[in-house]
């Protein structure tokens, strides 16, 4: 019987997913969390087989959670359930060691089936994303991605330098590189384009 932790920041949706999975006699939910940090604590406490998580959550995203679990060497396998049908997200998820990636707008039966398959050691990827994921390569490095997130949040270069511990000139160089790679006119446009592609 697969034992799982469920992480979803929207309360109503989290409860709905828990109720849906609770109908399955062969799946046990050992904990639910509103963000990745809570989910990580539950994984450490309960040692589940599967972590079902959204991508965008406060405090720690699903992708950050997956990366942390991968580095920690825990046995729990991660299944992303999201509305974001962007190839960039799938590529980053796979790089973070995620075992499954399905979309919320699919049939409800897909979720329980995906949990079982991931628990059994399979990889489950939404077929509509699998091929597209490798058609567009994410050109950004981690530093550029982090700075574009800060630009998206409205920070100016001095505040970015303070937040990241980088020199102002280094911040300027990274931003210029990101803007050039994305063919954008400025940092805000670059952040918007990267977000649309799923690269942030």
UniProtKB/TrEMBL annotation:
Annotated positions of the 4-aspartylphosphate modification: 54
Keywords tagged on the record: DNA-binding, Phosphoprotein
Classification via InterPro entries: CheY-like_superfamily, Sig_transdc_resp-reg_C-effctor, Sig_transdc_resp-reg_receiver, Tscrpt_reg_LuxR_C, WalR-like
Stretches assigned to coiled coil: none
Gene Ontology MF terms: DNA binding
Span of domain HTH luxR-type: 133-198
Pfam families linked to this entry: GerE (PF00196), Response_reg (PF00072)
Domain of life: Bacteria
GO biological process: phosphorelay signal transduction system; regulation of DNA-templated transcription
Domain Response regulatory: residue ranges: 3-119
Stated name of the protein: Two component transcriptional regulator, LuxR family
Organism (species): Maricaulis salignorans
